[in-house]
Write a structure and sequence with these properties.
By secondary structure, this protein is α+β, with helices and mostly antiparallel strands. It folds into 3 domains: about 110 residues, Efflux pump adaptor protein, beta barrel domain (Elongation Factor Tu (Ef-tu), domain 3), CATH 2.40.30.170; about 55 residues, RNA polymerase II/Efflux pump adaptor protein, barrel-sandwich hybrid domain (OB fold (Dihydrolipoamide Acetyltransferase, E2P), Beta Barrel), CATH 2.40.50; about 120 residues. The chain has 6 helices and 12 strands. The strands form 2 sheets. Strands 1-8-11-10-9-12 form a 6-stranded antiparallel β-barrel. Strands 5-4-2-7 form a 4-stranded antiparallel β-sheet, with no helix packed on it. A hairpin with a 5-residue loop joins strand 9 and strand 10. The C terminus is likely disordered.
């Protein structure tokens, strides 16, 4: 009988101890839940790669998830209009360069002979027209010819005199050399043509879309054959060397984070430990910008975003964009015990 009573009291004491342990554990859990570790997200600097020229996507050289280096080809755009414009600019440069060289060197010996021959022919025509006009003029004074014949001979004489003056000016220009104004004009035409060619070549090179930095391709918005518009993002990526960690904290504890202080964070599932340094504190414009899943924020408090940078260089593949991280030694809010 006594043994049964002792056994019963033992069971009662066991259950009492068990309930007490559960109560203490629940209280400890509530205490820990009141101050959970500060949670945040892994962030990389986002880069949007856009096209400067409109055209149809000819080739896509990368896939989502690929890691590329600065200068690697991401895509090629087919722009036939730019190719035609570049060919026209190359032809204009050749023509302008030839004119500039001609201006520097002056007329060739063939041109000189040709102008001299034109001058001699014009001089001969002028002498003949002049003699004819003198004879016909004396006959016209004696009323020996019709007035119409006199006007015809006079017109030929005036035309021959004008033609002789033009050829004399052309010959004098060739004999005296090229004027400075003509050289400068030819040089200006050549420089304008070369500028148009450089512009066309620059536009032609823009058809090849290259990576602006070392990055990981996160998304490709276009496919082969689709029409790309200027300024429209073709690729979105993240730079591997610009990783940082963003946490959301209320104003009650944000003053407890001095800039330059070192902290330790860990990833949610891989349990990777990383030493970080507080780099910047930014006020969030709205609740939609909150980084943490469950920020310890009371009603009326302003939320701030804490930006931490790794204290040491990190391997590119150790963390990924938007992973969850925790800071277990974060300061507690004022007034919370």
């Amino acid at each position: 009988m006594n043994a049964k009573r002792l056994t019963r009291w033992g069971l009662v004491l066991f259950f009492i101890c068990a309930f007490a342990a559960i109560g203490f554990a629940a209280r400890a859990h509530r205490a820990d839940s009141a101050h959970p570790p500060l949670s945040g997200k892994v962030r990389f600097e986002t880069i949007h790669v856009v096209s400067k020229v409109p055209g149809r996507i000819e080739t896509i050289a990368v896939r989502e998830g690929d890691r590329v280096l600065k200068g690697d080809v991401l895509a090629v755009i087919d722009v036939p209009e730019i190719a035609a414009r570049m060919e026209a600019a190359e032809g204009a440069v050749k023509a302008a360069s030839a004119k500039y060289r001609m201006a520097l060197e002056g007329a060739s010996e063939y041109d000189r002979k040709q102008v001299r021959s034109q001058y001699e022919a014009a001089r001969s025509q002028y002498d003949y027209a002049k003699n004819s006009y003198r004879r016909i003029a004396s006959m016209n004074d004696g009323r020996l010819i019709a007035q119409q014949e006199y006007e015809r001979v006079k017109s030929n004489y005036l035309a021959a005199r004008a033609n002789l003056g033009a050829t004399e000016a052309r010959l004098a220009d060739i004999e005296s050399g090229v004027r400075v104004e003509k050289i400068e004009m030819a040089e200006g035409d050549m420089l304008r043509a070369e500028g148009a060619l450089r512009e066309a070549r620059s536009a032609y090179e823009e058809r090849v879309v290259r990576a602006p930095a070392d990055m990981r391709i996160e998304s490709a918005t276009m496919k082969t054959g689709e029409l790309a518009a200027p300024g429209f993002p073709l690729f979105t990526g993240h730079t591997a060397d610009a990783v940082h960690f963003r946490f959301t904290a209320p104003e009650s504890i944000v003053h407890s984070f001095p800039r330059g202080e070192k902290y330790e964070i860990r990833t949610a599932f891989t349990d990777l430990r990383v030493d970080v340094v507080l780099d910047e504190i930014l006020a969030l414009p709205g609740y939609a910008a909150v980084t943490s899943m469950y920020p310890r924020k009371k009603a009326g408090e302003t939320a701030y975003e804490l930006i931490f940078r790794p204290a040491y260089a990190m391997e590119p593949e150790t963390v990924y964009h938007n992973m969850r991280v925790f800071m277990e030694n974060a300061p507690r809010a004022i007034g919370i015990r």
